[in-house]
Design a protein that fits this description.
329 residues; alpha/beta; Arginase, Chain A; two-stranded antiparallel ribbon
Length: 329
């Protein structure tokens, strides 16, 4: 069965599926020539996800202000909305730019995560991948940075807490860069547990093991030039046992693929198969503790060929987890 487009009433879905949420507005954000977070990333990630047999496409809505200000303060939200130029670029930090079309893309990216939470919790899909940009995990409650404007995964987590009254949420971040914004959003929020594996001494310079928040922050650092074996050892021996002990009601993933060996912005040597492996293990824990509920959101990944292979591997693992379920939605 090939990939299907599904934009109607999601309550009519009668099979366990992986949902792919996205919107073409996500390619309208253009931070300028030569910038690694370029519009082509959207096309590559979306098309790779849709090649996985049986996934269903859901159009991402625009996030609403009340959803965003659960994470970002209102003044910051309004500053982003008003920052879009009629032409050219506005610069928010050394790496983060706004073009005409950026605000719509950012609202779609945040809206994808919110809608995915609703769909997965309401059993319209077992799990979901949000093929969106700009990424989000560096965005702090009052600061844009590292290509990120709104913290998409944090907004999704707060929506799950506020609208669906979940008691415990886990965020697993395997982007090669530490998600300082996600950590900042939740370091005093014990209902959200944040697990990050990332390269040591890389941008943004945070994510040390002693940063534990309220006992809900778990940082696992890899040395430069770490390979698949070291990554798997760390995940198997440290991250996964901590995640299993958490027993969350839903697992969110900040899915950055920039630890791939071909990525230009880091020095970790993973292969696409490693992302299939780690996704399988996260889904296994989700199957044991939260009925398989997993929502993944695209973060980094800047070599286009590597991004294509990694997204396909990741979504394939999500889809395999969906197909293993024996109940009807």
């Amino acid at each position: 069965m090939g990939a299907q487009k599904f934009c109607g009433n999601t309550n009519t879905v009668s099979e366990v599926v992986t949902l792919v949420l996205s919107h073409e507005d996500c390619k309208k954000h253009d931070p300028g020539e030569g910038h690694p977070e370029r519009p082509e990333r959207y096309t590559v990630a979306f098309e790779a996800a849709m090649r996985v047999p049986g996934v269903k496409f859901i159009e991402a809505p625009l996030a609403q202000p009340n959803q965003i200000i659960r994470v970002h303060n209102r003044e910051y939200y309004e500053s982003i909305i008003s920052s879009e130029p009629d032409e050219g670029l506005s610069q928010l930090d050394p790496d983060t730019f706004v073009s005409k079309g950026t605000v719509g893309a950012a609202l779609r990216a945040a809206g994808a995560g919110v809608h995915a939470v609703d769909l997965v919790i309401n059993r319209s899909g077992l799990n979901a991948f949000c093929a969106v940009r700009p990424p989000g995990h560096h965005a702090e409650p009052d600061k844009a940075m590292g290509f990120c404007l709104f913290n998409n995964v944090a907004i999704a987590a707060m929506h799950a807490l506020g609208e669906h009254f979940l008691e415990k949420i886990a965020i697993v971040d395997f982007d090669v860069h530490h998600g300082n914004g996600t950590q900042a959003a939740f370091e005093s929020e014990g209902r959200v547990h944040y697990y990050s594996t990332h390269q040591r001494s890389l941008y943004p310079g945070t994510g040390y093991p002693e940063e534990v928040g309220a006992g809900n922050i778990y940082n696992f650092m890899l040395p430069p030039n770490a390979d698949s074996d070291l990554f798997k050892l760390q995940v198997r021996n440290s991250l996964l046992p901590s995640l299993r002990r958490c027993r969350p009601d839903i697992i969110l993933i900040s899915a950055g693929f920039d630890a791939h060996r071909d990525d230009p912005l880091a020095q970790i040597n993973l292969e696409a198969a490693d992302y299939h492996w780690v996704t399988q293990r996260i889904c296994q824990i989700a199957g044991d503790c939260c009925n398989g509920r997993v929502i993944s959101m695209l973060e980094g990944g800047y070599d286009l060929a590597a991004l294509d292979a990694c997204v396909f591997a990741h979504v394939s693992a999500l889809n395999e987890a969906a197909q293993e379920q024996n109940y009807r939605i």
